Amino acid sequence: MKSLFIVLEAVSLVLVVYGIDTTPKNTLEESLLSLLTQWRAGDRGPFSFPFPSLDEIKIPAVSGNYEGYGAKISYETTELKLVGLKNFSVASLDASEASLKASGTITIPVLTLSADKYTIKGRALWFIPVNGSGKLRIDFGNNQLTFSIRLRSNSSSTWVDTLQLAFSVGSLKASLENGPAAITTILNNSGVSIIQSNHDDIVKMVRNLILPVINNFLSGLTPEQLLQTIAGNATIAPNAVRV
């Protein structure tokens, strides 16, 4: 279960929420918000790479073991589907052309993870046998991502100098078809705590996943070229955008 939560949160953070975005304070912030608005609506502009589609994210099947809260289980799932990423809002954004730095907070009201089949085997409360198999659905509520990124450059290229991430999950509701009540109770009562206890591992995984992708995208681009690309897509959109 631990690895399932780590993989899910990593994918959510890598992909970075329906709402009202923050008000931009300068041209760069206006351009970035416009790009995010287009991405939310399904238009990735010149950023088809590295921007993925937000409609539905498919995650490979997951398997593993979990021990905690009196449970010791093995689990596996079929391919997982994650929806809700496109319903995001940019709560805050600070960006500067001079320092090549951006920071902000993104919120996602609800993320829904589902699978056509899961299987659980093991024990709960240390001695009660538990088994279950069926459809899986987990809803994550009030999700928040805070980020800070700074770029460096030379005469021919740009790269990430620093990248800081933090996240929080406000609530979790699990539905396991034919699932053992003890495991569902653990997930609903302690799922958020399990995720937060693995915060640093999740952030580390995210950094390892996205840094090569971002640097590969930036390679060969000067800051001027990058800023021109962003500005070229800055078709002004209303601050309040509902998708």
Features:
single chain; 243 residues; alpha+beta; 5 helices; 8-stranded antiparallel beta sheet; Bactericidal permeability-increasing protein, domain 1; disordered C terminus; elongated; two-stranded antiparallel ribbon
Report what the structure shows.
The chain has one domain: Super Roll (Bactericidal permeability-increasing protein, domain 1), CATH 3.15.10. 31% of the residues lie in helices and 42% in strands. It has helices at 2-15, 27-40, 181-197, 199-218, 223-232; strands spanning 19-20, 57-59, 63-68, 71-77, 80-83, 89-96, 101-124, 128-153, 158-176, 240-241. The strands form 2 sheets. Strands 2, 3, 4, 5, 6, 7, 8 and 9 form an 8-stranded antiparallel sheet that branches. A two-stranded antiparallel sheet has the order 1-10. The longest helix is centred in the last third of the chain and has 20 residues, at 199-218. The two termini are 33 Å apart. Keywords: Signal. Residues 1-19 form the signal peptide.
H-E string: HEHEEEEEEEEHHHE
Classified by CATH, the class is: Alpha Beta
Helix percent band? 25-40%
Helical element count?
5
Tell me what portion of residues adopts beta-strand conformation. 35-45%
Principal-axes geometry comes out as elongated
Classification by helices and strands: alpha+beta
Number of strand segments: 10
